[in-house]
Design goal:
three-stranded parallel beta sheet, elongated
């Protein structure tokens, strides 16, 4: 006979409170009297016998985390001075018009544009789109550029 061929025996659960001679009779392992001896009793999670609990000793997390998506806006007058043929979030970040290439960018403004260029951004105002097409340019709707995954963030996910 091998170890994996053994038949497991299931031991029946010990029934308590079935007479004094059973070993777990009378008080059924609950001690004598008191709140803990009564039926239906259960302590709340984190209860430490009336003393200040660990949760209450820890500092509160101040402030709050805003879940609102931050949209950075760029004006047409800012783009008009650029010499690039295609304008996307990377070009805007390189020229310092937005904080980084991974934010949501909206092109706004109704100033006239003299040079034609291709714009690839996630958001644009109607007046800005009309000004670009009037100058002979083109607007292409592109999704927000995702942040590249680093080793630290991939470790946190696992």
């Amino acid at each position: 006979m091998k170890y994996h061929e053994l038949n497991l025996t299931t031991k029946s659960k010990k029934r308590v409170g079935r007479g004094i001679s059973s070993g777990q009779g009378k008080t059924a392992g609950r001690g004598t009297k008191g709140q803990k001896a009564r039926s239906g009793y259960s302590r709340r999670p984190g209860f430490e016998g009336g003393s200040t609990t660990l949760i209450q000793k820890l500092p509160k997390l101040r402030g709050f985390k805003s879940h609102r998506k931050v949209i950075e806006s760029v004006g047409l007058q800012d783009i008009a001075g650029l010499k690039e043929a295609t304008i996307d979030s990377e070009v805007l970040a390189k020229h310092g018009l937005i904080s980084n290439p991974f934010v949501i960018v909206k092109l706004i403004g109704n100033t006239e544009v003299k040079s034609k260029f291709q714009v690839k951004l996630p958001l644009i105002s109607k007046s800005a789109e009309q000004a670009i097409t009037k100058a002979g340019g083109k607007y292409t709707l592109t999704p927000q550029k995702p942040r590249p995954k680093t080793k630290e963030t991939s470790k946190q996910v696992k």
